[in-house]
Amino acid sequence: MKELQARIKQDGQVLGKDVLKVDSFLNHQIDPLLMQRMGEEFYQHFREFPITKILTVESSGIAPAVMTGLAFQKPVVFARKHKSLTLKDDLYVADVYSFTKKTANKISISRKFLSATDHVLIVDDFLANGQAVAGLTDIIKQADAHLEGIGIVIEKTFQKGRQLIDRQHIPIFSLARIKAFENGQVVFEEE
User: Fold this and answer.
1) Which of 156, 152, 151 minimizes the C-alpha distance to 178?
2) 28 contact partners, CB below 8 Å, separation of at least 6
């Protein structure tokens, strides 16, 4: 998605060897028009799939997932990272490690929002080491639901996340694919 690549070049900030800060439009301040166009891109790519639910992890995946849900006209469910007084019983739970934050989280989804009749599209903000996707995939398996595909806003192809997904033969579509950070600049995969 050329518009997203241009926005990453303009507003993204490379931190160290493997972190991209995109908080001005994706995961702190949100550009709703860009999110809407991303949701439409995911819809165009996965529209032939029998999607019944869009699934993501709080919090940065919520905006692109909601816009994808809007395009599909299907509900969006997000896995919570923190315990809640209102979300404590009858849950699907999985462990997820964040390499960016160097923390482990238990993510959870109420069993009433995901079942064996669901055909799920995962939408998330980043794919790096694949831990969030692995946690969501585990929850989908616990529910006996069907994972139809994965939509990623920004993929860092120089990390192992894609290989983990490819081994499972899950359809995946990334809007922007980054092959390296060189001299503080983003280098995209050739199309």
Assistant:
1) 156
2) none
User: Which structure tokens are listed for 58?
Assistant: 């709080």
Q: Are 176 and 148 in contact (CB under 8 A)?
A: no
pLDDT tens readout for residues 58-78: 889 999 999 999 999 999 999
Distance CA 24, CA 142 (A): 36
- 83: Cα within 13 Å, side-chain hemisphere: 3
Q: How far apart are CA 173 and CA 155, in angstroms?
A: 9
DSSP H or E segment with residue 119? strand 119-127
Number of Cβ within a 10 Å radius of residue 124: 23
Return the CA Rg of the chain.
Answer: 16
**Closest listed residue to residue 99, CA positions, set 137, 127, 123:** 127
- Give the confidence band of 87 by pLDDT, cuts at 50, 70, 90: low
**Which amino acid type is present at position 104?**
A
Q: Which amino acid is at 135?
A: G
